[in-house]
Amino acid sequence: MSTESIISYKEKIDAAKLPQHIAIIMDGNGRWAEAQGKHRIFGHRNGVKAVREVAEGCAELGVKYLTLYAFSTENWNRPKQEVSALMELLFLTIGREIKTLQKNGIRLNAIGNIHTLPASNRKALQEVMEATKHNTRMTLTLALSYGSREELAEAARQLAEDYKSGKITLEEISASNISAHLYTKDMPDPELMIRTSGEHRISNFLLWQAAYTELYFTEKFWPEFNRNDLFEAIYDFQNRERRFGKTSEQIHQQTTTNY
């Protein structure tokens, strides 16, 4: 992909209409590697470059939140050797990329059942989160040992405890209460969700938060995904009409009134 091509897509993007929060399902590392006759972990290693490209691209444009589906609760069911290699690669990369995070003003965050990660991995993650906590340009969130159904079940348990202890009444339980008990309570819902590798599903990722998220699917495997592909996805997003249950006429009138 030429620099000229990257610049042309970037120039098409309206800086005033950027999605504030982009979520990405990074899919296809293993299949990309197998297609080249390599071991699946080779694909995961090459996927690191795509993470760097996308994180720097989002920071460059001014996107405030980027959430990456790094390891799901279901991924624990993969072959033990692959899980071990993934964990090692993931946390080696986090440590090595701290300079990139600092240079780009990116704060690292994590959501999911972090307590299920190996102790050494939790420690490494916490160290980088602590080192970058004052960065304000963008928040990069890694969804680790994450499953949205489990997240919702935990929110329900917390609300039940609040009701049991008298903190809230049944009538006070609302959509906003549920959102306030999710891992993502301190960030806006994603406006754009990207999935690579040609799969057309969201695989237990941010189910509640994605109620009005625009979905973008690409045939490219994750190791092939680059900054230009990110810009293309954002450009596609900006050319959609987001109605939130309203009619096109209502949206047009609202836009006209705002101006």
What is this structure's SSE topology?
Blueprint: H1 3-12, E1 21-25, H2 29-35, H3 40-61, E2 65-72, H4 80-96, H5 98-103, E3 106-111, H6 119-131, E4 138-146, H7 148-164, H8 175-180, E5 192-195, E6 214-217, H9 227-238, H10 248-258
Parallel strand pairs: 1-2, 1-5, 2-4, 3-4, 5-6
Helix pairs in contact: 1-9, 2-3, 3-4, 4-6
Keyword list:
259 residues, alpha/beta, Undecaprenyl pyrophosphate synthetase, 6-stranded parallel sheet, 10 helices, disordered N terminus
Architecture overview:
This protein is an alpha/beta fold. It is 47% helix and 14% strand. The protein is built from ten helices and six strands. The chain has helices at residues 3-12, 29-35, 40-61, 80-96, 98-103, 119-131, 148-164, 175-180, 227-238, 248-258, and strands at 21-25, 65-72, 106-111, 138-146, 192-195, 214-217. It has a six-stranded parallel β-sheet with strand order 3-4-2-1-5-6, with helices on both faces. Strand 3, helix 6 (119-131) and strand 4 (138-146) form a beta-alpha-beta unit. The protein starts with a helix and ends with a helix. Mean pLDDT is 91; it is low at 1-6.
